């Protein structure tokens, strides 16, 4: 019997894509464990995300727009189960809080510790924020990988 894409339910397709993409982020992110190195792959991916944002006229001129664009693109790349239930955005600063993350999964803990997963996530996000708008920076005051109940990411205009 020959299988075709349409033989897989859409939810199954998302699960497969999310798992593969998440595993790639973690594998590449192992290089970022020292928290000073961002793998070249992440810069390439960030450039592609910037092009997608430009092609679809996604907002990225201020923190609120960057958060909105990051939410949409993350949902496309990581699948519909990627949750961003709390987003607060203003011109110079925006906050995202997530409780479910495809990277933070017991499925991946055999191949990477929570510290490595956090380093991969941080490097991935930092490269994207910089590519979407280099006038902004990212901090992560809370992280599920560090034992918090949710991840919190703050996108803020760089001080001059």
Annotation, overall tally of beta strands: 4
CATH class categorisation:
Alpha Beta
Structural class computed from helices and strand pairing: alpha+beta
Work out the strand percent: 15-25%
Identify the overall geometry.
Answer: globular
CATH architecture descriptor: 2-Layer Sandwich
Strand order of the largest sheet: 1-2-4-3
Order of helices and strands: HHHEEHHEE
Average pLDDT score: 85
Summed up, the helix count is 5
Oligomer: single chain
Main beta-sheet strand count, sense and barrel state? 4 strands, antiparallel
Helix content: 40-55%
Radius of gyration: 16 Å
Low-confidence stretches: none
Q: Would you give the CATH topology?
A: Muramoyl-pentapeptide Carboxypeptidase, domain 2
Separation, N- and C-terminal Cα atoms? 63 Å
| Number of individual domains | 1
What's the short story on this structure?
The chain has 160 residues and is of the alpha+beta class. It has helices at 10-29, 40-55, 63-78, 106-109, 114-132, and strands spanning 86-89, 93-98, 136-142, 151-157.
Q: What is the strand and helix layout of this fold?
A:
Elements: H1 10-29, H2 40-55, H3 63-78, E1 86-89, E2 93-98, H4 106-109, H5 114-132, E3 136-142, E4 151-157
Antiparallel strand pairs: 1-2, 2-4, 3-4
Describe the model.
The chain has 160 residues and is of the alpha+beta class. It has one domain (10-157): Muramoyl-pentapeptide Carboxypeptidase, domain 2, CATH 3.30.1380. It is 47% helix and 15% strand. The protein has 5 helices and 4 strands; from the N terminus they run αααββααββ. The chain has helices at 10-29, 40-55, 63-78, 106-109, 114-132; strands at 86-89, 93-98, 136-142, 151-157. Strands 1-2-4-3 form a 4-stranded antiparallel sheet, with helices on one face. The chain is globular and about 60 Å long. The relative contact order is 0.17. The model has no long low-confidence stretch (mean pLDDT 85).
């Amino acid at each position: 019997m020959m299988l075709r894409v349409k033989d897989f339910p859409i939810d199954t397709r998302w699960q497969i894509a999310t798992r593969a993409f998440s595993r790639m982020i973690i594998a590449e992110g192992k290089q970022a464990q020292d928290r000073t190195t961002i793998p070249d792959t992440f810069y390439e991916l960030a450039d592609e995300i910037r092009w997608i944002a430009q092609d679809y006229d996604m907002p990225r001129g201020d923190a609120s727009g960057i958060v909105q664009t990051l939410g949409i693109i993350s949902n496309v790349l990581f699948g519909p189960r990627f949750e961003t239930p709390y987003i607060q955005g203003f011109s110079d600063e925006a906050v995202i809080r997530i409780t479910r993350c495809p990277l933070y999964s017991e499925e991946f803990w055999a191949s990477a510790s929570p510290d490595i997963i956090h380093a991969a996530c941080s490097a991935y996000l930092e490269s994207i924020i910089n590519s979407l708008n280099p006038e902004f920076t990212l901090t992560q005051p809370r992280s599920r990988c560090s034992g918090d109940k949710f991840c919190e990411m703050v996108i803020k205009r760089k001080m001059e």
